[in-house]
Amino acid sequence: MIEPAVVAAVVVVGGGILAVSSRDGRVVAIGLLIAMGAAPLVASSFPQPLSVAARIVGAVLAGYLFWAAASGGRISGAGSAIGLAAETAVAVAAVAIGMSVSLVDPLPGPTVAQAAGLTLIVLAVVPVFGRDVLRVGAGFTLLVLGCTLLTAAWLGETPPLAKLAVASLLVGIAAASHVGIAMQPLPGGTVAAGKREIAATSGIESTAGQAGVATPSAAGRARIQGSSEGIGTRRDRTTPARYRSKISSEQTSAWAEIEQSEPETPPESPPSVAAPPPATRIVRPSDRPKP
Amino acid sequence: MSLVPFLAVCIAGAFLGLLSLPLPRLARLVGVAALVAAFLTALTIRPGDQLTVGQVDLNTSWYAGLFLSTATASCLILCVLGLAVGWPERLAPAALATFGGLAVAFTATDPGVVLAATAASAVPAILVAIRSRSGPPEIQEAAATHNLDVALAELRTLGLMAVGAVIAGVAVLQPGWTTSDPTFVFALAYAALGLAIAVRFGAVPFHVPAARLSKGRARLGLPLPLVWIPSGIAIVALSWGGGLFQMQGDWLNAAGTGLQVVAVATLILGALGALLHEELEEIAAYSIIQDAAFVLLALAARDADAAEPTRLWLLAFIVAKSALVAWAAALSSTYGSSRLQDLRGWLRRSPVLGLSLVAVVVATLGWPGSAVFEARATLVRLALPSPLHFLGIAAVLLAIAYYGRLIGVGLMAPGELVKSSAGERPRWPGSTSKTVIAVAAATPDPKATARSARIRAARASSKAPSVTAPAVAEAAQQEQAAGRSAAVNHAAGVAVQFVSKASGRLRATSLRSPHAGVALLRQLPGAWRLNRTLETSLLVLAISAISVSIAFGGFGASKAASTGISLDAVVAATPLLPINGNGAPSSGPLRTPSAGPASTRSASTVSAPPSVAASGPVSSASSGPSAPLGPSPSSRPSSSPSSSASQLTGD
């Protein structure tokens, strides 16, 4: 029978590979959440519920912070430089080394904890030297997680307060990454250009002038107007996807879109790369010729 | 239990402060109120209190209470100063979160908790380091670039600290290593801790992030990442520096030498940086960096004797460097520039700030025989070989040079910017000091004659008519009333008619006198606003005076420095395990970490007397790596809880 610690270690390593190899920030957040959530379960005996609860709550909070930062659209995710397969191969090699070496004798914790910890440390080495704040944050999260797994392997079970402190540390690293991501330059050049780009993509015009500059007076006017145009003017935050979909659906109906698309597409225009599919002539019941 | 209110205030204050950030007025109110509450609760921390949380004992100590009180007081004064010279955004909640983490780190008896809490307490530094992006597009873009660099630097510093702390925790708890040279593990932990402290302090060659912080708009927030957080880490690291790292070994010696090199480079180049830079914030930052070298020297000393002077030095360092940052912020706010060449003659217009700077110099350097001077000299003597002891004097001379440069610039003929400022001269609404006399004369004074009051008021009114006009009228009325009352007093046999008339006048006078008092009170807010410069200077003088007092052993600093934190007792009582492998005798571990619950481990370790701190690790230092690295259980003296408590309380 497979021990729970082995399963948890496999999950931790899988989450780590996912976190360092994905380009999508949200997948990185999910990978980190998986790794952080499963890490306290890599123990020779099932840990105390209070300890596990503290670590899982911390993992969820840290994962949410990464998710919130990633869903803002500010991530220039470079992903892994060597790809998923190579990262997996590196992880497998690290697991093999971690299972074979014996630095502490007798080992109070499970050997798989040592292997998983070593693997996470190896996986985290490359991301921490980059300039992508998300990857650096993810790298340091994995690094600290790997060190805690090594601690679990070499020292055995730690008291609940230590687990709480580790959870606080992981949340702190996630929060620092979140703040750093929120403050980094927007993709596409300058801040103002980034704001214009966001406004263009979200379908919301900024009320703060042509340059998209956020000023308190403009934000105040936007509030007075009480319209949805105030969103995104004061705070440098992209419009969430739910607002984008809602606004676009409110603007036009499906019938109106089809009708508007016909005259705007000249028949002579060359087909573009991202050209929309040819509109199908839909005959409304009212348009049918009456007998 | 006396720790609980402090922790509660710190946690609540940090959360509420962060939540109220979008509302600036509320954020200031919450920040100052929470810091006041934190300071008061820090003062109530009693040495020797015990609290068990999550199977770990939290033992308060005299030094932990004094450190937290000093740090919260410094932060409170900086925030109050910020109300006048520019509110340090996010400083209050970030500092409260840090102090809460440090409180756990200073009181916990489990090394894993201590190190994780120490690393976690460094997280809020990024909140202060990152610049706000409000303003025109150019500022936003510059801030975005700055923030990216700062965020990366802070993340790496945080990660390094966290990893270093975890490595040190593993090494110190000493599982049964199978390596042939155990000192390698200790050297790794030692180097990790030293590197974390050096990077966080901004020691040379890791000074670029610190310099970038000073170029940003951290201003009053500068002490959090450069002073308070690294000082807390240093105190934790110091608990091991004088104990476990005393053993001899090639790897440990190499790590110690590396730390010595970094410390010496920081001691000299930090002072040169302060000497060569023009901006006040940069000078303050490099001054902090230079003085941080003494902490590195303490760690490089690997001597138990270095602990007490370092603790005293850290207390003085916290307040003195906070005072220096406050001085720089107050001066640049007074004259509208922080460039030294724009501040020629500042000392002539701001003598109180000049006095504050002198106090900061005294608190930092002291003089032969003073506590802080002896602490610095002791650290240099313990950490460096004899041929390099002159570096201590060189550091003092270099520090005097850059402080003297600041004072020398202040004594020069005032520049345009300084001339255009009123400096610290007391002012009153009406902009002339004569008005003050007039208002004072207009106030009811039974001993002053009404005529003289009228004359003074009339003279003042010729210079400040708009303000003193009511004063003249009041004086005239006072003269009239006083004349009538005198007539009443001196002519007792006058007709009843006249007496009743005079008493009517008296009643009118008594009604108008409070009116003049109310008028004076109404002018007080204006006077308060007019004298903002003087008030900020007095605030800076107050924190400078506190720093001088602590540097000379006041507020119980000397007594507290001899006690330490809970971890000192834990590390002192931690036996060193024998090394399995490479022919070393395997007599079995003295303490298997997984053998029992953590509470058992903590209880057995914290109750060791302080005398073991000196005997255990020192005896292991001479044994060499191939021999068992610690005293046998039979040779160890029995532990005594009372002696541990007396160590923490200083009794």
Can you walk me through this structure?
- The complex is a heterodimer of chains A (291) and B (651).
- Chain A has 11 helices and no strands.
- In chain A, helix 1 packs antiparallel against helix 2 (25-38) and helix 3 (49-70) packs parallel to helix 7.
- Chain A is globular, with a radius of gyration of 25 Å.
- Chain A has 2 domains: 4-183, no CATH class; 189-245, no CATH class.
- Chain A has helices at residues 4-21, 25-38, 49-70, 83-100, 111-125, 133-155, 160-183, 191-202, 216-225, 241-251, 254-264.
- The termini of chain A are far apart.
- By secondary structure, chain A is mostly helical.
- Chain B folds into 2 domains: 3-420 and 532-567, no CATH class; 433-530, no CATH class.
- Helix content of chain B is 71%, strand content 1%.
- Chain B contains 28 helices and 2 strands.
- Chain B has a two-stranded antiparallel sheet.
- In chain B, helix 1 packs antiparallel against helix 4 (91-107).
- The longest helix of chain B is centred in the N-terminal third of the chain and has 37 residues, at 137-173.
- Chain B is globular and about 105 Å long.
- The two termini of chain B are 20 Å apart.
- Mean pLDDT of chain B is 76; it is low at 435-450, 461-472, 484-495 and 577-648.
- At the A-B interface, helix 6 and helix 7 of A face helix 5, helix 7 and helix 26 of B.
Structure keywords:
heterodimer, A: 291 residues, mainly alpha, 2 domains, 61% helix, B: 651 residues, two-stranded antiparallel sheet, 2 strands, 71% helix, 1% strand, globular
Q: How many domains make up the 3D coordinates of chain A? A: 2
Mean pLDDT across the residues of chain B is 76
Number of strands of chain A: 0
Order of helices and strands of chain B: HHEEHHHHHHHHHHHHHHHHHHHHHHHHHH
| Rg over alpha carbons of chain A | 25 Å
**Broad structural category of chain A:** mainly alpha
Low-confidence segments of chain A, ≥5 residues, pLDDT <50?
189-280
Structural class of chain B: mainly alpha
Average pLDDT for all residues of chain A: 71
